[in-house]
Amino acid sequence: MKLLSGELTQKNGLTLTSGTFTCQFAYTAPAAPGIDTIWLTSAVGHSNGWNWGTEKRVVVRTLTGISNENTPVQFKLNQNYPNPFNPKTTISFELPVKSDVKITILDINGKLVETIMNNEMQAGSHEITWDAASYASGVYFYKMETGSYLDVKKMMLIK
């Protein structure tokens, strides 16, 4: 796949029992997740008889855009380190786009202990340190929420 004349294109020969053909397409992502259409055009001199219609519906679930190779491609909440910890631990996460990020600490019963982040963050890799010096030993959970992503991980404080 490559950018050719301002369009994202794919041009590969595919081997068939009776020879090869080339499929080329152009696709522009929609402005928001949803249902979109890819239009296919057969090579000159061929029909669409190779079992594809002139259009195919696709579901766009996550938009990642075009970014440099240092920008994450998906939301991700990593396991804290160290784990178990005493009394500080680092929580790292990745954002493919600028997002409102909320990170909360929950006790074993799911009760809110502390909100350690509630900010708009730029796309990229981030980390935050939680100091649990004033909390009792035990199992805790940390939860990351953005507009379109939610994940929870478990950690253990041992004093």
Break the fold down into its secondary structure elements and pairings.
Elements: E1 2-4, E2 7-9, E3 12-16, E4 19-23, E5 34-39, E6 55-60, E7 76-77, E8 88-95, E9 99-106, E10 112-121, E11 124-131, E12 138-145, E13 150-157
Antiparallel strand pairs: 1-2, 3-4, 5-6, 7-8, 8-11, 9-10, 9-12, 12-13
Gist?
The chain is an all-beta fold. The protein has two domains: about 1-60, no CATH class; about 75-155, Macroglobulin (MG2) domain (Immunoglobulin-like), CATH 2.60.40. The protein is built from no helices and 13 strands.
Polypeptide structure, described:
This protein is an all-beta fold and 159 residues long. It has 2 domains: 2-60, no CATH class; 76-157, Immunoglobulin-like (Sandwich). Helices cover 0% and strands 50% of the residues. The protein has no helices and 13 strands. The strands form 5 sheets. A 4-stranded antiparallel β-sheet has the order 10-9-12-13, with no helix packed on it. A hairpin with a 4-residue loop joins strand 12 (138-145) and strand 13. The radius of gyration is 24 Å and the shape is elongated.
Instruction: Count the DSSP helices.
Output: 0
Q: CATH class of the largest domain, please?
A: Mainly Beta
On the 0 to 100 scale, the average pLDDT is 76
CATH homologous superfamily label of the largest domain: Macroglobulin (MG2) domain
Strand content: over 45%
Low-confidence runs? 7-11, 40-54
Keywords:
159 residues; three-stranded antiparallel beta sheet; 0% helix; four-stranded antiparallel beta sheet; elongated; mainly beta
